Amino acid sequence: MRTYLSLPEPSRRALPLALIALCAFSQNAGFTQKDFEKLSPIVGTWLNKRTRGDIYETWTREGPTAFSGISYTLANGDTTPLEKVRLYREQNQIVYAPVAAGQNDEKQVLFRLKTMDGRRFVFENLKHDFPTRIVYDFRSSDSLYAHIEGKVQSKPRRVDYPYRRIH
After folding, report:
1. Is 132 exposed, middle or buried (0-12, 13-18, 19+ CB in 10 A)?
2. Is it the case that residue 8 has pLDDT exceeding 90?
3. 162, 139 in Cβ contact below 8 A?
4. Structural domain total, the chain
5. Is residue 112, in this structure, part of any structural domain at all?
6. CATH number, domain at 121?
7. In this predicted model, what pLDDT tens digit does every residue of 52-66 receive, in sequence order?
8. Residue 9: what pLDDT?
9. Can you tell me the distance from the alpha carbon of 39 to that of 89, in angstroms, rounded to the nearest whole number?
10. Is 153 within a domain?
11. For residue range 138-165, what is the model confidence (pLDDT) as tens digits?
12. Has residue 121 been placed in a domain?
């Protein structure tokens, strides 16, 4: 004789919802080391040519789970630091942590990887004033298209940074 577990009616309805929620959570379990390795093309020096001063980003590998980057402008022979960035994997998250020169009391602001689609990475921090989103899109081995976006005075704003690899 088989014995079946009989659940009261409300529990039978809740069980499928709990299974759906569990499946959704397990599919979004975070980012792996393999995902992190897809950011490896960032290593090197990138140049964004502009009339008011070229922007450079230089990235190095700091270990199996971290990259570090610096960005600066070069105009008329003067170098102006813009930010230092630490890009790292911690547990199941990938974090972009810039320290912008002269902003946020020189403290890092954390942007967590939200989505990854091929070679396009979207980092978000919806609690930050501007930007709330940082996007890196590796279009080829020598072409990196980055942008920041968010709102300034309640109006959408986006700043584009087309880079080409120089080293």
Report:
1. middle
2. no
3. no
4. 1
5. yes
6. 2.40.128.20
7. 899 999 999 999 999
8. 53
9. 11
10. yes
11. 999 999 999 999 999 999 999 999 999 9
12. yes
